[in-house]
Design a protein that fits this description.
The complex is a heterodimer of chains A (340) and B (286). In chain A, helix 5 crosses helix 11. By secondary structure, chain A is mainly α. Chain A has a two-stranded antiparallel ribbon. With 286 residues, chain B is mainly alpha-helical. In chain B, 74% of the residues lie in helices and 0% in strands. In chain B, helix 4 runs antiparallel to helix 5, helix 4 packs parallel to helix 7 and helix 7 crosses helix 10. The chains are: A mainly alpha (340), B mainly alpha (286). At the A-B interface, helix 1, helix 2, helix 6, helix 7 and helix 11 of A face helix 5, helix 6, helix 10 and helix 13 of B.
Chain lengths: 340, 286
C-alpha cells in the first residue's frame, strides 16, 4: 500500500515539474530570440510582420523588463502569474486575461461538443464493428473511418465550408452568432448559435471519431474472446446485458486515458477549424495576435492552452486509478483488511 | 545480389499491403516523381505572373491562375518539393535523434531512462500546434526553423519505439550470448540492435513525415509558413484570404487543386504508415 501511495506522490511531483517546464518555457521564449528580439522582427521582409517603431521597441523592452537582471525578471513573472495576471495586450489595450476569458467559452463549446459527439459515435460504430468483425459491414466502416480520420481537420473543414456553406448555402460562412440580430426567445438564439457552430463541430468530430472507433473496436474485439464472456452467456444472461454491461464496460477502460492524451491534438484541430470558419475562439485570437505581433497575448493563450491540456491529462491519470476496478483503492483496502 | 534482395523485400511488402495501402504507395511514388521532375512537368514559371489573373483551367494554364496570374499547376509542381523536403527533413532528424535517445535510455536505464520517459510523456501530451505557432511567431517562419521545430517535437515517437524494442532485444538469449562471448557495446549496436530496430524506425518515420507535412501546411494556412517557400499550404492561405473567394467561382481551381494534392499526399502517407506498422508489428491494428 505504501508503495502505491509513494508512487502517486511521485506522479504529482512529476506533474508539478511539467507545469514548471511549461511556465519557464513561456518565460524564456521572448528572451531566447536571436539577437535583439524586437529589432530582429522589425527588419524582416514578410507580409504578416508589422514594422515596429522606436517607441514600440522601447515599450516591449520595458514591458518585459529586459534591462533588469534575469532572476529578477523571473521572480516578478512568477509573482504576476500567481496572481492570475497574464500580462497586458499591446494591440487590444486590455488585460490578456480578460481577452482570453471572453474568447475561451467559444473554444470550449467547440471542443467539448466535438469530443462528446466523437466519443458517442466512436463507441457506437466501434462496437457495431467489433460485433460484426471481418464481415463486410466492419470492413467498409473501417476503411471509411480510417480515411476520414487521416485527412487533416482543416482540409475537411475547408471542403465542408465550400460545399455546405458556399455552394448549398445551408450554413453561415463565418462567425458564431448573427450580428445585430434580435431574438425573441432564448431558443431562437440557441438555434442561431448551433447553426453557426454546426460545421466546425462536424469537422472536429470527423477528425476525432476514427481514433476512438479504432480503440473501441480493437479493445472490444479482445474482450469478446475473454473467458468471462462465455461465463456470462452460460449463465443465461440476455444478449443485450452481455454486450453492454459485460463487454462494453470492460472495453471502454483504455478509452479514458486515450481521450486525455488526444486532447492536445483536438486543441490543435480546434485552432485550425476556428480559422477556417472564422469562429471567434482562442484559435482565431491567437492567429490575430501573431499577425499583429502581440507577444504577451500569444504567450497568454499558449499558457492557458498548454496548462489546460496538461491539467486534463493529470486528472485523467489520477482518476484512472479510481475508475479501473483492478486498481481502485477502496477495493485494495478491502483486500488488505482481509489479508491482515 | 543486394539489389535482388531489396527487390524481393519490396515485393514481399507489396503483397502484404491491403488495397488502401497499395493505392497510397502508388500515389506517394507518383508525387515523389512529380517533385523530382517539377521543371519538366510545368512549362510555365511558378514564381511570377505568366498570364491574366484568375482565369479558369484551360490551355496553357492547366489548372488556371491565381490573383497575380501565376500558373497554379506550376506552383503545385514546385510546392510538392517543399512538402517532401519538410517531410523527409523532419522524419530524418527526428528518427535519428529519437533513435539515439531511445537507445541511450534503454542502455543506461535508471534515472536517465525515467527522465527520458517523463519527457516523452510531456512531449506527447503537449498541444503541438500552439507550441509551433508560438515558436514560429518568435523565431521567424523560415523553412529551416519549421523543420527543426517539427523534429524537436516529434522525436518522442521513434524514441519510445526504439527504447521498448531495445529493452526487449536486450533480454534475447542470442544477444546475451554474444555479450557473454565478449561483444562490446559498439559491436552489439551495429551488428544486432540497429539491423533489428531499423525497419520499425523507418515505418514510424513515414508517419512522422506525414504529420510534419500536415503541420507545415497548417502553419502555412494560418499565415505562418515560410513566405518564400510557395508550399501548398501557402497557396491555400492566399486563396482563402482572397476577399470573396466563396462568392465567386475562383475556388474551383485556386483552392480546389492544392487541396486535392495536399489531401492525397497526407492521407496516403498516413494510410501507408498505418499499413506498414501493421505488417512490421502484427500486434497493432487489425
Amino acid at each position: 500500500m505504501s508503495i502505491i501511495r509513494n508512487r502517486k506522490g511521485f506522479r504529482i511531483i512529476e506533474y508539478a515539474l511539467t507545469f514548471m517546464v511549461i511556465i519557464t518555457l513561456n518565460f524564456a521564449l521572448p528572451r531566447m530570440m536571436p539577437g535583439d528580439p524586437f529589432l530582429h522582427y522589425s527588419g524582416e521582409v514578410d507580409e504578416v510582420i508589422t514594422f515596429y517603431s522606436r517607441e514600440q521597441i522601447q515599450y516591449f523592452r520595458e514591458y518585459y523588463g529586459l534591462d533588469r537582471p534575469l532572476y529578477e525578471q523571473y521572480t516578478s513573472y512568477l509573482k504576476d502569474l500567481s496572481r492570475g495576471d497574464l500580462g497586458f495586450s499591446y494591440y487590444y489595450k486590455d488585460d490578456v486575461r480578460n481577452i482570453i476569458m471572453r474568447r475561451l467559452p467559444w473554444t470550449l463549446f467547440l471542443v467539448i461538443s466535438a469530443m462528446a459527439l466523437s466519443i458517442l459515435l466512436g463507441i457506437v460504430l466501434g462496437s457495431y464493428s467489433a460485433w460484426r468483425r471481418n464481415k463486410w459491414q466492419d470492413k467498409t466502416l473501417y476503411a471509411i473511418l480510417i480515411i476520414f480520420s487521416e485527412i487533416p481537420a482543416f482540409l475537411v473543414g475547408l471542403a465542408l465550408l465550400i460545399w455546405f456553406g458556399a455552394t448549398l448555402k445551408l450554413f453561415p460562412l463565418a462567425g458564431a452568432v448573427t450580428h445585430f440580430a434580435q431574438f425573441d426567445t432564448w431558443w431562437e438564439r440557441m438555434l442561431d448559435i448551433m447553426h453557426h457552430a454546426a460545421l466546425p463541430i462536424v469537422t472536429l468530430t470527423l477528425a476525432r471519431t476514427g481514433g476512438i472507433y479504432l480503440l473501441v473496436r480493437n479493445s472490444l474485439g479482445s474482450v469478446l474472446t475473454k473467458d468471462y464472456m462465455r461465463t456470462a452467456r452460460a449463465k443465461g444472461l440476455k444478449e443485450l446485458r452481455v454486450k453492454y454491461v459485460h463487454a462494453l464496460r470492460n472495453a471502454l477502460m483504455p478509452l479514458f486515458t486515450r481521450i486525455a492524451i488526444q486532447l492536445g491534438a483536438l486543441i490543435g484541430g480546434a485552432i485550425l477549424a476556428e480559422n477556417v470558419f472564422s469562429y471567434p475562439g482562442l484559435g482565431v485570437l491567437m492567429r490575430n495576435a501573431v499577425v499583429v505581433r502581440d507577444y504577451p497575448l500569444i504567450q497568454g493563450i499558449f499558457l492557458v492552452l498548454a496548462v489546460g491540456v496538461m491539467a486534463a491529462n493529470m486528472l485523467a491519470d489520477l482518476a484512472y486509478k479510481y475508475i479501473d476496478p483492478r486498481t481502485r483503492p477502496a477495493v485494495k483496502n478491502h483486500q488488505d483488511k482481509i489479508a491482515s | 545480389m543486394k539489389f535482388k534482395k531489396a527487390f524481393l523485400a519490396i515485393q514481399n511488402i507489396w503483397h502484404s499491403l491491403n488495397i488502401l495501402g497499395k493505392i497510397s504507395a502508388i500515389i506517394i511514388v507518383l508525387l515523389i516523381l512529380m517533385a523530382i521532375a517539377a521543371p519538366l512537368l510545368s512549362w510555365l514559371p511558378h514564381d511570377r505572373s505568366s498570364g491574366p489573373p484568375l482565369i479558369p483551367p484551360g490551355l496553357p494554364h492547366l489548372m488556371g491562375t491565381d490573383d497575380l496570374g501565376v500558373d497554379i499547376w506550376a506552383m503545385i509542381c514546385y510546392g510538392s518539393r517543399v512538402s517532401l523536403l519538410v517531410g523527409l527533413g523532419t522524419a530524418f532528424l527526428a528518427g535519428l535523434g529519437g533513435g539515439i535517445v531511445g537507445m541511450l535510455a534503454a542502455y543506461k536505464g535508471g534515472w536517465f531512462d525515467r527522465a527520458v520517459m517523463r519527457l516523452i510523456d510531456i512531449m506527447i501530451a503537449l498541444p503541438n500546434l500552439p507550441v509551433m505557432i508560438v515558436l514560429a511567431a518568435f523565431f521567424g517562419p523560415s523553412l529551416m526553423n519549421i523543420i527543426i521545430v517539427l523534429a524537436l517535437f516529434s522525436w518522442s515517437i521513434p524514441a519510445r519505439i526504439v527504447r521498448s524494442g531495445a529493452l526487449s532485444l536486450k533480454e534475447q538469449p542470442y544477444i546475451k550470448m554474444a555479450a557473454h562471448y565478449g561483444a562490446g557495446p559498439f559491436y552489439l549496436l551495429t551488428r544486432h540492435f540497429i539491423p533489428e530496430l531499423l525497419p520499425i524506425v523507418m515505418v514510424s518515420m513515414i508517419r512522422l513525415a506525414g504529420m510534419a507535412i500536415v503541420t507545415e501546411a497548417s502553419l502555412a494556412f494560418l499565415g505562418l509558413g515560410d513566405p518564400t517557400s510557395r508550399s501548398w499550404g501557402l497557396i491555400i492561405n492566399h486563396a482563402v484570404n482572397f476577399r470573396g473567394i466563396y462568392f465567386t467561382d475562383f475556388w474551383k481551381w485556386w483552392l480546389f487543386y492544392p487541396w486535392v494534392f495536399l489531401t492525397l499526399l497526407v492521407t496516403s502517407l498516413a494510410l501507408l504508415g498505418r499499413e506498414l506498422e501493421r505488417i512490421a508489428d502484427p500486434r497493432i491494428g487489425r
